[in-house]
Amino acid sequence: MTSLNASLPLAGSGYSAEAHAQISGMAARTVILLLVNIPVLAILLNVARQLVIPRRKTDPPIVFHWLPFVGSAIAYGNNPLKFFFECREKHGDVFTFILLGRHVTVALGPRGNSFILGGKSITINAEDAYTPLTTPVFRRDVIYDVPTVERPALMKRFCCMNFSSHLRAYVGMIEEEVEDYINKESSFRTFQTNDIEQWGQFDVIQGHAGNSPSSRLQEPFRARRNSHRYTTTWMGDSRLPNLMLPNLPLESYRKCDRAQKKMSDFYVDIIRKRKTGHSEAEHDMISTLLEQTYRDGEGLKDHQVAHLMIALLMAGQHTSSASGSWALLHLAHNKDIADALYREQVQHFGTSDGALRPMTYEELRALPVLDSVIRETLRVHPPIHSIMRHVREDIAVPGTLSNPGKDKTYIISKGNFEWDPSRWSDPEGVAAQAFNTYVDDKGEKIDYGFGAVSKGTESPYQPFGAGKHRFCAYMQLGTLLATVIRKVELRIDAVPEYNYHTMITMPKEPRSISYRRRKAD
């Protein structure tokens, strides 16, 4: 009995272990089957829903997609323009695609521009669309983080604060800074040797980032070894996922928050020192913002001025940086156009001793070759490929936009993305004719201080949207390009492809331009 009793637990434990092993094996197989079958089932149900379940006739066509929730995010993220054009061939100018669980409706063409940009802001709203992206970077009480009824007053004050006087001063400042950069930066060491035969190279993004009206504000950050914060906060797109998936516990979000606070504290410290009389400064953008008041007499608070300065530094800096990069790349790839641009500089600014005198704001506006280069660059390479709005309530799409019609075919011209500034120089050419289409006797064309541009929401030429903010970009780009082309010849075998994985559309690597000094000192 003793031995029997002693052996029973051993046998029982063996059965238990075997049963446990069998159950574990079954559980493992079940988990594997579920991991395989659930996604397959989800995909099949998603496809069936699109093909079988009837849609409302009033809904725009939905782009077919295999993956639920993900939708067309991969195709859109890798090449949004290619994705849009392929969808337009199938569905017309209006269609809907799924982007990480959200329904995104696209309206293309001039009528699409007018439909989106000309809609009532209370219905087709920009704040709701961009606040998840801009507020973590610019922070509270500025840009889109203000009530809709208050924002126009703030933006009007912001845009009409005597910009022209600042722009006139900035032309000389930018020219000096570009020259100083070329004379000191390590990537231009070949230029600094004063050798007019040897070729050097520079990265087009790193080679001119910072040469803008705001770059002098960056100097204290460079002195504190904090220049990387600009990349961390904005160009690194650390907050880009927040546009679709807000409030994720990501380290990139925390880096953005820390960088933003240090930048904000930096500006607030400057403001407080000025208010207490402990700092002397010229009348600059901070001073201008501090002078602004609402209709009730209330001024901007210190943190609002600081956050607006960050917005100026980030948004204006990097859109211009991207556009300048594309322009330099095309000039390096098109020697004849670069030579024409240089001859224009010699014609307008050449002196009797063979040198080139400094440019002025007024003179910069009257250079047709330079103007054509800028216009064509912005036409082919708008800084942002998609302008977004959040639809707060159902809206009807005009019949002329909603479907192409049985007898109408949309055709994308083969040369639509060919960079050719001469198209703007011919008054009888296609570009000039299209541009003039949106001019009428009611003032659809307006000069904001840097050449007449179309303000109509239907215009197909809207590199910065339909607003009044492109004049500053023209001044920055014009001064940058003219100064660089005065100093060096540029060469590159091919223009790089687009990098659509950043918020601002940048060129992919490699993007190094070869250069050679034009004249020896």
UniProtKB/TrEMBL annotation:
<keyword id="KW-0489">Methyltransferase</keyword>
<keyword id="KW-0408">Iron</keyword>
<keyword id="KW-0812">Transmembrane</keyword>
<feature type="binding site" description="axial binding residue">
    <location>
        <position position="472"/>
    </location>
    <ligand>
        <name>heme</name>
    </ligand>
</feature>
<keyword id="KW-1133">Transmembrane helix</keyword>
<keyword id="KW-0808">Transferase</keyword>
<dbReference type="InterPro" id="IPR001128">
    <property type="entry name" value="Cyt_P450"/>
</dbReference>
<protein>
    <submittedName>
        <fullName>Lanosterol 14-alpha-demethylase</fullName>
    </submittedName>
</protein>
<dbReference type="InterPro" id="IPR002403">
    <property type="entry name" value="Cyt_P450_E_grp-IV"/>
</dbReference>
<dbReference type="GO" id="GO:0032259">
    <property type="term" value="P:methylation"/>
</dbReference>
<keyword id="KW-0479">Metal-binding</keyword>
<keyword id="KW-0472">Membrane</keyword>
<dbReference type="InterPro" id="IPR036396">
    <property type="entry name" value="Cyt_P450_sf"/>
</dbReference>
<dbReference type="Pfam" id="PF00067">
    <property type="entry name" value="p450"/>
</dbReference>
<keyword id="KW-0349">Heme</keyword>
<dbReference type="GO" id="GO:0020037">
    <property type="term" value="F:heme binding"/>
</dbReference>
<dbReference type="GO" id="GO:0016705">
    <property type="term" value="F:oxidoreductase activity, acting on paired donors, with incorporation or reduction of molecular oxygen"/>
</dbReference>
<comment type="similarity">
    <text>Belongs to the cytochrome P450 family.</text>
</comment>
<dbReference type="GO" id="GO:0005506">
    <property type="term" value="F:iron ion binding"/>
</dbReference>
<dbReference type="InterPro" id="IPR050529">
    <property type="entry name" value="CYP450_sterol_14alpha_dmase"/>
</dbReference>
<feature type="transmembrane region" description="Helical">
    <location>
        <begin position="31"/>
        <end position="48"/>
    </location>
</feature>
<dbReference type="GO" id="GO:0004497">
    <property type="term" value="F:monooxygenase activity"/>
</dbReference>
<dbReference type="GO" id="GO:0008168">
    <property type="term" value="F:methyltransferase activity"/>
</dbReference>
